[in-house]
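Dear colleague,

Thank you for sharing your sequence with our group. We've completed the structure prediction you requested, and as agreed, I am returning the results in plain text so they can be pasted directly into your records. Please verify that the sequence below matches your submission; if there's any discrepancy, let me know and we will rerun it promptly.
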Amino acid sequence: MEITFSNRNIVITQVQAQKDWLRRTGWGAELGSLQTDSETAVKFYTQQWEIPLMDAFLHLVFLAAVISTSGEWRAATSECDEFKVEIFKLIEGEAFYYVPYDAQEEPEDFLTEGFSWYKNGSQIENITTDEKHRVHFHGGALFFLNLTAADSGNYTAIKMDPSGECFKYFVNIKVYNASYRYAFPHGANDNSQQFKNVTCAELVVYTCEHFAGNFSWFKDGNLLHGQSRAFVLLPKATKDDEGSYTCTCTWTHNHRAYNSSGTRKLIVQEHYYHTEVEILSPVNKEQFGDEGSSIKLNCSVFCGHNLKSDCESSWTINGKDFRRIDGYNQTTKTVIEGSSKDTVSTAILTIENLSAEDFEHEFVCKGKNFYHLKNVTLILKRKESVIPLVIGGLGVLLIFVFAAMMIKCFAIDLALFVRPYMPLGDRDNDDRVYDAYVVYETQSVDKATEEKLSWFVTKILPKVLEDQCRYRLYIQGRDDIPGEDRLELVEECIRKSRRLMVILTPGSGSGSEFRDKHLASPQTSVLGGFDWQVGLHHALIQREMNVILIQLGDTGPQGYSHLPPGLQHLMRESAPIKWPESSRSGASKNLHFWKRVRYLMPVTPARKPAPSPHLPVEL
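Please find the predicted structure tokens below.
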């Protein structure tokens, strides 16, 4: 078997392959012994692989070549400069043009000669230079046309320089199907600047420039029209511009078009800025609690706008971190609020069981952002007992209730007491001579009622109001002047009276009998006669006098429905005052009945006028 070394690089590569194969099978350590003893080598082969002697001889011839060139191999490769491994994640179906990064800056003739490429694996695979093959190399450039999953692996390039220098380049390739296109971006653009420049992957740019290819851009798989450069400019990037930007270069090799692509991730950060730290809570420097109870202390701080970090709130107790003290628990939370983007951090310190010492501690709420720090001190105080407040409140309430009841029960007495000291009304401060004009009915009543009415009008009424209270009354029948024109007298006396006092008896103003008497003799009917008409006119129409209604006895089943409409209207405004028939002190002005009557009478009695020929003279 003849072995020549006309192609030094090929021999070295083959030797290296055999050595690697021996090393992987576990017999690399025996390689040194094969250099000195041929018989031992034959024995080694026949014993280890149990091969025929002739085959062992053939292997021995090959090993002789290995042994004779091993010194030369060591001299050629032991001092090779090795460069770090480059790793690429590629997409199935695309093309990959690779030149070692550390060799890209070398002169052009450096990449044209002296390179050998092979793929490391279970077997060493030499890479061909035949450009008809899908995977081939040309000098220092390695071509993968229409990548497949089988192309994944480790590749090594050996560069033997004519000057004797040796270089080793390593590359690791992993090929994925198209669904992983956006899973391995070539870096991300995630700064907060509004002006964005998304650049194509360097390897794709290198390929495109070398083969004068054309660029096209895709965003999340959608073609970006009008983008044919190695970058995409976004002067005012917003959140809508976020996504995966894929740069694809279409280039030609041996009159066939291929695509190489790279993807970058664009992240648009919203603007943020720090402000002076503002303590939102606690607002007061004191907080109340009960010893033995649970309490929560809220520390809320405003740090700025849209701060995803650099906004902190916390509590300290007497200058120490709460975590160094048992019995305290703190939870913190930072929130960016709605459209305003206000950043608020909240720390809640929970004290499960307030002790006496806690009321002596100094709690400090601390808030800080990247540039500012602010503190607020909080002191705990015991809650005051609410029992004194409750007792005081109940006492005040009882006083008001008692006062209201007293006013309601003695309102008339109080009014009678204070009104002499109050300013007189215009209506009572006049020159009228009578305080009340008394009208009553003696017709259509039984004898008992008539006697009662006569007794009340002529005895009781004058005794209390005139004798005790000094009021002046005009009582029809008592104060008439014989021979005087009655109609004229009634008109003038009512006009000179401040009140109209109507005495109501059972059957007053009711029945056809009353109406007949009224029509037949107006002079003999008091209530239904002329004096009633004149008094009602002054009270209702002219509103010159108030009406006092006094009821003697019960009204009966018909109530007040039998009375004239004008009188019913007055009764709706002021209910009649009922005379207490059973009272033994009926002639005393302190009787509640008389207090009510006096309350409706003028404040001060009318002045006694000078004698007049038309008015009765009081002796």
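Summary note from our side: The longest helix spans residues 387-418.

Kind regards,
the structure core
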